Amino acid sequence: MRKVGIAGVGAYVPSKILTNKDLEKMVDTTDEWITTRTGIKERRIADDWQASSDLAFQAAQCALADARMEPKDLDLIIVCGVTFDYPFPATACILQDKLGATKAGAMDIEAGCTGFIYSLSVAYGYIATGIYDNILVVGSDVLSKITDWQDRSTCILFGDAAGAVVVTPFQGQGELLNFYLRSDGSYKDDLLIPAGGSRNPPSHKTVDERLHYMKLNGPEVFRLAVRVIEDAVVALLERAHLSKEEISLFIPHQANIRIIQTAARNLGIPLEKFFINVNLYGNTSAASIPLAFYEALKEDRIKKGDYVMLVGFGAGLTWGAYLIKW
Ligand code: COA
Description:
There is one protein chain. This protein has eleven helices and 13 strands. It is an alpha/beta fold. Helix 4 (about 90-100) links the parallel strand 4 and strand 5. Helix 3 packs across helix 4 (about 90-100) and helix 8 crosses helix 9 (about 255-265). The protein binds coenzyme A (COA).
């Protein structure tokens, strides 16, 4: 098996900012409630014309430039998310065309907000076994388009973004060391879009009943999130024979600051070791972890040789973690 590493990292957020004060004018809420219950102060909202592949394109270009690579160098493109451009074809194909990545295969992976960790493990497998050399992994989501802007319990939580990495045989940076993936579909009803798929095909009725928007059992997902973050961190540390003290930075899925605080406390890990940007972007689903990773690098929170652990959870239920040595 070959060693595998991250050759480039990129991200993109739309320029339009929606603040908690703006939301006060849209639904019955307050900046104070949102800030204390979630830690979120503002989030980015895509333009009407922007779909998942448009955000993904920007993040991909940024990651390719960081890796000093051209689109034609890519062997495979993986896009993960929950708000793909169309039910089919794959958003990865649309991105392939936009980039002009003429030698690349393309596929989407849907694993909720854990999509980036799942996708990274797929890229790892192809490269470690020598099948492919250069794989682009993009987490992109435009949650504003599946958010019910009349539902105050969900519309305050989400934002739009994309984050990308280029994965290659190890070149001295960002070695992908080990990962842990889990799922439990018995919790599917706690976070889903009830209609629009083959279970409940779209109809006037489903639209009238607003079933094409995200539905969330907030308190239950909160409880599950705390439990599965702990599970993933403990399991991956064990698998990698490392102690929590040896991890320099945890990069958790950014859903709610209180989820991160509670998990950190339960794990006995100082909160300062968790990278946090949920205040600026809210929950951006599959983009959340690569966006946070990108910002952590820009802010110099990751040094050469550091052990970094990505940890995520999301609809499915899915959860998992990835250990990287930078
Ligand atoms: N503004 C003001 N009040 C609000 C509100 C808002 N935006 N949204 C809900 N409320 C009210 C509720 O109606 C409820 O009122 P009641 O007590 O009179 O019934 C009260 O606030 C408490 O609601 P609850 O849902 O119990 O709050 P909470 O502390 O659990 O926080 C979430 C709600 C959604 C912020 C929290 O549960 C959460 O973050 N869950 C995880 C969500 C998540 O991460 N999902 C994505 C996973 S990838």
